[in-house]
Amino acid sequence: MSFDGSFTHSMRNELASILKTGRVSKINQPYPNELILTIRAQSKNQQLLLSANPTYARVQLTKIPYSNPSVPSNFTMIMRKHLSGAILTDVQQLDNDRVLKFLFTSRNELGDQTELCLNVEIMARHSNIILVDQKTSKVIDAIKHVGSDVNRYRILLPGATYINPPKQDVQNPFTKTSFTDIDQLIEEFPNVQVLADNVRKMIQGLGKDTSLALASYLHKSDQTETNFKNFFSQFDEPKPTLSNIANNKLNFTAFPYPDTAKNTFYSTLSELLDAYYAEKAQRDRVREQGAVLIQVVKKQLKKNRTKLKRLTRDMAETENADAFKIKGEILTTYLNKIQRGMQTIELPNYYDNNAMISISLSNQLSPSENAQRYFKKYQKLKNAVKYLNEQMKLTQQEIDYFENIQSQIELAKPEDLIDIRYELEQGHYLRDHEQHGKKKKAKRQKINKPEEFVSTDGTEILVGKNNLQNERLTMHTADKRETWLHTKNIPGSHVIVRSFNPSEQTLTEAANLAAYFSKARNSAKVPVDYTKVKHIRKPNGAKPGFVIYDSQQTLFIDPSEDIVNKLRK
After folding, report:
1. How many distinct structural domains can be found in the chain?
2. What is the pLDDT of residues 314-360, one digit of tens each?
């Protein structure tokens, strides 16, 4: 599952075969640690994704659309200045390490030809993208600046001399000619797991899964050199594979490794990575870009849940209201037995067979005032019941609302966060976090369109991804005769089937979308209500996306990602 040096070898071959002699037409930085170069090669526009993400660092061609920030970063502007219109002359790998070098020829402001190298270092949290002038070996810029206070060996700052990552005392498997040392390892470590650990220390560019696969190959026969070369030759003719490993986890490899199950094959390594990383990387981007939203929602949920507990406790206290009334009536009956200055008195409770009841008194009040004090407590608690019921209802609505927002953030694409942020700003939940004031508010009026799907029989299905999209879709876009679906009593998306009389198959597929884009995505037998749009109503003063409905029927669905991908337009 690692983007190791051997996988990088295969990816280098793929990128070189597709992109060499291509011209850079666009440069964008949709996310802080990721750069996309649009390269026109072989009469096609190819999106080259260079990622220095600490968790999902990689290099690949991608077909996943990205939304770019309205204001490009300084790094993007420098890349555009030097690489716009540049020709990619070669793609090289540093030995068998996780470093790819994209070599470009370009023209500077004076029209002179320049040679540039865009280095992509895939090294977990140390991953980086560095543009270097090949003639001077000087760093032009890096997506992550690394000063001497962080790394004394190499500085990655504009103007610094570029130095390759430290070279390890290991062998490149693609240039290795002698195999006596491998024979010794096999003889010394017959166990596959132990052999894999030791081979990894000797051979460059082996992740844990690759070293285990190599160890299994080496045990096939006594022909060590043949087994070794056969294994690594497969990286030159990859068969991109997505497979299941232990604990039902997914693993991507350049070709099928031993001891894997449910192998799915792809035509290119880039398509394989799109399939593997699409959701994982997206969740990471959402967490990164939506950090403020997530924090605000958590804060609001914590505040309202605490408030609800307090209100519930206060409501429980109102159950004692009748006890205060009884004490007040008993004191009124036996006023002649009470004397000013008493702090407690025992009197017969004629509501309980004249059993003696102890009643606390204030020594500062007269007997009559003590009785009135209990009547006032009783009346106060009785009046509080109505207020507490109302507050508990409002607080529970706030909890439901923010649980819904929380669910939407979990299911959101990065571009969906814009609508969610705007909604929270409109509700004044984000007033302490606004950075651009009224200008931003005035500009951010347009709501993104709902996602489009097409059922098996060709019927269009629309899915809202947040409250603002849901409200516009259901209350403004949909025809009253079309069908509306939503998970029953579970936060989720509004789904509209754009048909007056949809088939059962279309209804089932739309219900799968409703269940998948809900908080119950990972559950089974998810209840999904459906009814005509004409039966949907929004209560006065309700928050965006909140509706009530009737005349509904219910389907029970097991959400399937495969069906969602099949229906996606």
Report:
1. 4
2. 888 787 788 888 989 999 999 988 988 899 999 999 888 889 999 99
Regarding whether 385 and 312 lie in a shared domain, the answer is: yes
110: its two tokens: 């004076």
Per-residue pLDDT at 456: 94
CATH number of the domain to which 19 belongs: 2.30.310.10
Let me know whether 147 and 191 are in one domain. Answer: no
pLDDT reported for residue 138? 96
Q: What is the pLDDT of residue 441?
A: 45
- Give CA–CA dist 364/343, Å, rounded: 9
Please tell me whether residues 18 and 153 are part of one structural domain.
Answer: yes
Write the pLDDT tens digit of every residue in 523-565.
999 999 999 999 999 998 888 889 999 999 999 999 998 899 8
Residue 97 lies in a domain: yes
Domain end (from 103, 128, 161): 161
**Residues 254 and 239: beta-carbon distance below 8 Å:** yes
Pair 9, 157 in one domain: yes
225-247 pLDDT, tens digit per residue, is 999 999 999 999 999 999 877 76
Q: Are 113 and 19 part of one and the same domain?
A: yes
Residue 87 lies in a domain: yes
pLDDT digits 0-9 by tens, 78-91? 999 999 999 999 99
Q: Which two tokens stand for residue 198?
A: 């030791």
Domain co-membership, 83 together with 141: yes
442 located within any domain: no
CA distances to 188, 189, 210, 227, 355 from 220, rounded to whole Å, are 16, 15, 16, 7, 92
Residue ranges making up the domain that contains 364: 288-411
Whether pTM > 0.85 for this model: the answer is: no
Mean pLDDT to the nearest integer, 366-370: 91
pLDDT, tens digit (0-9, with 9 covering 90-100), for 104-140:
999 888 888 999 999 999 998 899 999 999 999 999 9
pLDDT of 160-176, one tens digit each? 999 999 888 899 999 99
Q: Which of 548, 545, 3 is nearest to 270 (CA)?
A: 3
CA distance 274 to 192: 32
Rounded to 5°, angle at Cα 184 from 180 and 188: 170
- Residue 382 is part of a domain; what is its CATH number? 1.10.287
Is 482 in contact with 499 (CB distance < 8 Å)?
A: yes
CA–CA dist 382, 76 (Å, integer)? 65
Within a domain: 166: no
HSE (side-chain half, CA atoms, 13 Å) at 226: 5
CA–CA separation, 437 vs 428, rounded Å? 12
Residues 387 and 495 reside in one and the same domain: no
- Helices 208-218 and 192-202: crossing angle in degrees, nearest 10, is 110
Q: Are residues 10 and 146 in the same domain?
A: yes
Residue 148 and residue 10: Cα distance in Å, rounded? 34
